[in-house]
Batch of 2 targets.
Target 1
Amino acid sequence: MAREKNYVSEAVMRRMPKYYRYLTDMEANGMQRISSNELSQRMGLTASQIRQDFNCFGGFGQQGYGYNVCELRREIHKILGLTNDNNFIVIGAGNLGQALANYTGFEKEGFLIKGLFDINPRLIGLSIRGIPVYDIDKLESFIPENQIHMAAICTPKEKAQNVADQAINAGVKGIWNFAAVDIATPPDVIVENVHLSDSLYTLSFRMSD
Amino acid sequence: MAREKNYVSEAVMRRMPKYYRYLTDMEANGMQRISSNELSQRMGLTASQIRQDFNCFGGFGQQGYGYNVCELRREIHKILGLTNDNNFIVIGAGNLGQALANYTGFEKEGFLIKGLFDINPRLIGLSIRGIPVYDIDKLESFIPENQIHMAAICTPKEKAQNVADQAINAGVKGIWNFAAVDIATPPDVIVENVHLSDSLYTLSFRMSD
C-alpha cells in the first residue's frame, strides 16, 4: 500500500491526516458506518473527491454501504505510518519545545518524545512531564543509541540549520521544523514545516480588505 | 492593491509570507538588490513562478535590474495587511497559549497579544510576559472594548467551537485555530488552522516506506 505513496499529490497527502482525525472522532463517538455523502458533508469535500483520494490507495468502501468507520480508520492509520516506531526528540527546550513536551495528544498515536535538547545550562537536567532535557552535546550519541528517526526543531532560527545538520548526521530522517527559516537537507531527509509567523501573516492577508 | 486578493490562489497566498520572510532576512543582512535568478535559487522556486506570483499584484522588479529588496519587502508588507492594527487575543492559556504569549517574534510585525483567556482559576490573574490572563467570562466585553479582530484558539478541541462562537459574536473576524478540530464559522470570518497532529502525521506518512 505504501508503495503508491510516491504517486500521491501533496494535496492528498495533506488530506489523509484530516480523514484520520474525523474517523478517530467518529469511532470514539460509536459510529460504525458512514455514507460517502455524510462523510463529504462533515469534511467539506465532495463525495467524488473523497473517492478519488481513496483510490490513490486502492479504494475503500462499498457501493451502497458507504464506509466502515473502524476499518477505514485502520487502513489510514497504516497508510500514515502510524504503525511504525515514531519516537522523536525535541531540539530547543524553550517555550515551544516545552509546550510540545507537555502536550499528550501525540502519544496517543505512538509519537513519544524521548528527550529535549538545549544549550541553556538552566534548562539542562530539568525534566518536562518526565522527559529529560539533555545538553545538546549529547545529541549525536543519543540519536543512534535510542534509534531516533525524527526531530522537532524549536530553536531560534539562527541555530536551526546547525542543529538539523547534527541530527541528520546522527541518523535522523525526518525534521519537524518550527524555526522561522527553511532548512536545507539531503534528498533522503523529509522536512515538514510549521512556520507560525507565515501562518499568522496568511490570516492577516486573507482578512485585509 | 489588496483588491486583487480575491483572485489570488491559495498557493500564491501561502507563498507571500515566505517571500516576506526571505526579504526581511535579506534586508537585515544589508542586501539592497537581488536578481530574480538569485531569489529563485534561494527560495527553491523558478524565476518564472516568482514573476507570475508578483504579477497577481501588478508585478514588481525591472528587467535587467532585478528586485530592490527594501521596496519589494515594503510592498509585500502592505499586501499581507501588516500595516493594519493586528492586535489579537489568545483563548486557552495552557502550554501552547503560554508559548505563543512568550514568543516575541509576532510583535516585530505589530501582532500584539492583548490578553489570554481561560476557565482555570489557577491561571486567571496571572500574567505571561506582562500579558494578563483573564476569566473567559470577560471575553465578550473585552473584544469590542479593545477592538480585537483576531483570536488564537488554544483550548482543548471539545471547547474550541464554543469559544470561537463567543469570540465571533463579540466581533472577531479571524480565527487562528490550534485546536485539533475544524471550526465552523460564518462566511465573513476567516479561519487559519495550525493542526499540529495533522502536520506530524504528514511527516510520518512521507517518511514511511
Target 2
Amino acid sequence: MKVLAVDLGGSHVACALVEDDSIVKSESFQLPPAARMSDVLALVEQPLLALREMASHSGAECSGLAFSFCGLVNPLAGRIVSTNGKYDDGRELDLGKWALERLSLRLLLENDARTALLGEYYAGAARGFDDVVMMTLGTGVGGAAMINGRLLHGKHFQAGCLGGHLGVNYRGRVCTCGNVGCLESEASTWALPAICTATPGFEESVLRHAPKLDFQTVFAASAEGDECAIRVGDTCVEAWAAGCVTMIHAYDPEVVVVGGGTMRAAEQILPALGAHISRCAWTPWGKVKVRAAKLGSAASLLGAVPLFRMNSQMDARK
Amino acid sequence: MKVLAVDLGGSHVACALVEDDSIVKSESFQLPPAARMSDVLALVEQPLLALREMASHSGAECSGLAFSFCGLVNPLAGRIVSTNGKYDDGRELDLGKWALERLSLRLLLENDARTALLGEYYAGAARGFDDVVMMTLGTGVGGAAMINGRLLHGKHFQAGCLGGHLGVNYRGRVCTCGNVGCLESEASTWALPAICTATPGFEESVLRHAPKLDFQTVFAASAEGDECAIRVGDTCVEAWAAGCVTMIHAYDPEVVVVGGGTMRAAEQILPALGAHISRCAWTPWGKVKVRAAKLGSAASLLGAVPLFRMNSQMDARK
C-alpha cells in the first residue's frame, strides 16, 4: 500500500510518500513560531502533489493522506479539537475537504503520538505486540495507548494521548494545561529552565552558563560530574518512570516504547528508567518490556499505512 | 433477569438474590482477618442455595452467580490473578467448577471496582452514560473504567482497576504494591495513621487521642476547627482530585463516580473535589460530571445483572 503522510509538529512539518514500512521520499520544513494552519497547508500542497505524482509514475496510486497533528483531534470527523495555542485556525478548517479538493486524496487525521505508536507497532520497537504504550519525551511529553491491537480513543478522542498530563506530583508545578504537577511540567524540555534554576547547586553549575538548556546539555554535564546536572537528570528520569508506571497501571500493556528527541540520550535514560519501572510497576503476570523507539522522527510517517489499514478494516466491519 | 451475587471485600462477604435493578434479599457476613477463600466458599454455600431456592419458588430460575472479588481477576478464565495478600488460596481454586458443582450455576468472576461501576451504570449515579470512571475511597482506593459502554480490561485484565495505584506523588510514600506515591499510599484509610502523624500540629490535635483514625474522625475534627485535621482532610481531597484528573486524562469519561466508605463524609469531600477537577482537568469538549455513588455497598451486587447481560451480548457476537 502507498500513502502520503504529513507529520505536523510544534516547529516543523514533514511530508512523505510511504510504501508499506518504508519511506520512499520525505521532505521536512522548519516553521516560523507564529505559523498558522493555513500557512502550513499552503506550504505542503506542492510537495505533496509532487509526491503523489511520483507514486503514480511508479505504478499504483496513493490510497490517501495520513495527517499527524500535534494536538487533540477527532479522527471520525477529521477535525482538530484542541491545539494548546498552536495552529489555532486549524479548528475552523476542514482538512478532509482541503485534501480532496487540492490533492484528490482521502485524508485521515490522527494525533501524532498515536501515529508514532502505530509506526513503532508496524515497523519498529513494538512489532509483534498488540498491547502497547508509547511515551514521547520532547518539548512536551506525548502519549498513546493500544489495547488488543486497537488505538484507544475514548468518548472525546483524548484517551491515551494526554500522557504528558498525567499527574505525577500533586504538589508540583502548574502546567500549561491548567493542572498541577503534570509529567510534562515536572520533566520536559519546556520546563527544563525552571527545573534547573530550582535545583540545588545551580549557581555553581555549568548549566548556569549553557547557551541552551536542553536534555542533551544536562546529560552531557551530568556525564562530566556536574552535581546539579546529575540531580536534574535523576529527578527527570524518576518523573518519567513514574509516568510510565501510571500508564502501565492504566492501560496494562506488554511493552512501553519511549521515543522523542530527548531519547538521543537514551543510554543515560533507559537503564535507570527500566530499573525503576521494573521495581515499581505492579504486574503479577510478568515484566513489562521497556524499549527505546526505533524509528526516530520517522515514526509518525510510518504510522500512515497501518492507519489506513485499520481504517479500512473498520469500514469493512460496518 | 434473576441472578445470585457474591461481593467479597477485605473484611466481609455479601450474598444476594438480585432481580434486574433491585436486591430481592441479601445477607452480609463479617470475616476473620485470616479468612481463606475456601473458608469463604464454605460460609456462603448454604445462604446461596437458600437464595437460589427462593428464586425458583417465585418463578424464574437464576441465570448464574456473579462473583465480585477485591483483587485482580481473569474474567475469561474465571480465575483470581492477584490478591495483594488476602485469600491467597483463591488463586489455586476453580470458582467456576465450585459454582457448577455446588450450586448448579454458571459463575462470572469480576473485580469488585468493575462490578461497582456496572452497578452505578445500570442503576445508580452513572445511569445514562457510556463513558464512566469509578473511584472508590475506602481502606484502599479502587478504580474502574468503562469506554463506549464496555468495561476496560486490557491484556492482563488489570487496565482501569488499579486506580489506587496511579502515582500522584513520585516523591511520596512507598505503597504496599511496591510503587512510590500511589494514590492509596498518599490518601486512604490504611495510610491515614502515617499521614496524620506526619502532619504538622498532630501533637496538639484531637486526632492524637482518637480511638480509631478513619476519615469520619478526621472530617468530624476538621468540622470542629482542628488544624491538623483540616490539613489532613485538605491534603487527601487534593490527592483524590489529582487521581481523578489522571483517570479523566487517561480514560476520557463523561462522568466520574466517587464511592466507597469514606464517602460517608461526601458533604465535606465532593464540593472541593469537584472544584479541583473542574479547575485542573483538560477537557476541551466541556466539563466532566463528578457525582457521589448512589448505591453504597450494594453497588457491586447490583452490577450482577449487567455483568450477565454484557456477557451474553458478547456470547451472541461470537
